[in-house]
């Protein structure tokens, strides 16, 4: 009887051990039950097939790269350009000059005195004749239209007290039928001005700083 009880106890102990061992065994992993998360620098998410043919979802996390902001040049409105000093007109007239002299006096306290002129010169026909030096020695005639070579225009400025010629502008040879220009007197004092000319039309303007008229 004693031996029978010991055998049963051993048998019961083995059954309990087998039962515990079976409970601790690792259960098989179900297929397709897990998801793999992959982080990469790519900007797109993709799905790749696993080795067993089941789909494995890949989720990509991208970090935005900061873009440099292009600096645009700043534009500003340029300041108004200096248009130069202002002048007051003391004489402005269009005159037909035929050996004409137009005089006037002016006391220039603040130089300069500015002269501007526009001239129109009449034309004449210049004709040349001659004999050909080759062939039958025939006579020929060539004509051309040119500005009148007898036309001239002069502005003269004198010191009223001494009659000294301060400066002058003289035009007596013209390449075209129209000509314009200017010149200035920088000497203060009592001035005597003479505008003269011949065989042309002159539009003459004389200006001084406004301080001279105050």
How would you characterize the overall build of this protein?
- There is one protein chain.
- With 214 residues, the chain is mostly beta strands.
- It is 11% helix and 45% strand.
- The protein has one helix spanning 2-24; strands at residues 47-49, 55-57, 88-108, 113-120, 123-131, 139-147, 152-159, 165-171, 178-185, 189-208.
- Strands 3, 4, 7, 8, 9 and 10 form a six-stranded antiparallel β-sheet that branches. A two-stranded antiparallel ribbon has the order 1-2. A two-stranded antiparallel sheet has the order 5-6.
**Poorly predicted regions:** 22-53
The number of helices is 1
Total E-strand runs: 10
N- and C-termini, Cα separation: 155 Å
Q: What is the N-to-C succession of helices and strands?
A: HEEEEEEEEEE
Rg, rounded, reads 57 Å
Tertiary shape: elongated
Approximate strand percentage = 35-45%
Mean pLDDT: 76
The biggest beta sheet reads:
6 strands, antiparallel
Sheet/helix structural class: mainly beta
Determine the fraction of residues in helical runs and give it as a percent range. 10-25%
Which helices and strands occur, and which strands form pairs?
Layout: H1 2-24, E1 47-49, E2 55-57, E3 88-108, E4 113-120, E5 123-131, E6 139-147, E7 152-159, E8 165-171, E9 178-185, E10 189-208
Antiparallel strand pairs: 1-2, 3-10, 4-9, 4-10, 5-6, 7-8, 7-10
Short account of what is shown:
Helix content is 11%, strand content 45%. With 214 residues, it is mainly beta.
Supply the key terms:
214 residues; mainly beta; six-stranded antiparallel beta sheet; two-stranded antiparallel sheet; 1 helix; 45% strand; elongated
């Amino acid at each position: 009887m004693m031996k029978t009880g010991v055998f049963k106890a051993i048998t019961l102990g083995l059954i309990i051990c087998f039962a515990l061992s079976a409970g601790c065994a690792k259960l098989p992993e179900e297929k397709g039950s897990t998801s793999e998360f992959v982080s990469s620098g790519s900007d797109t998410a993709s799905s790749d097939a696993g080795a067993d043919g089941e789909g494995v979802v890949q989720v990509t996390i991208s970090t935005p790269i900061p873009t440099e902001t292009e600096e645009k040049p700043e534009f500003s409105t340029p300041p108004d350009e200096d248009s130069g000093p202002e002048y007051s007109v003391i004489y402005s007239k269009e005159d037909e000059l035929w050996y004409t002299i137009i005089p006037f006096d002016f006391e220039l306290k603040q130089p300069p005195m500015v002269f501007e002129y526009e001239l129109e010169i009449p034309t004449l026909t210049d004709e040349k004749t001659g004999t050909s030096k080759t062939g039958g020695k025939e006579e020929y005639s060539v004509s051309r239209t040119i500005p009148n070579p007898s036309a001239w225009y002069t502005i003269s400025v004198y010191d009223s007290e001494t009659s000294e010629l301060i400066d002058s502008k003289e035009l007596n040879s013209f390449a075209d039928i129209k000509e314009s220009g200017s010149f200035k007197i920088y000497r203060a004092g009592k001035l005597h001005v003479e505008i003269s000319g011949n065989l042309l039309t002159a539009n003459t303007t004389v200006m001084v700083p406004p301080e001279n008229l105050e």
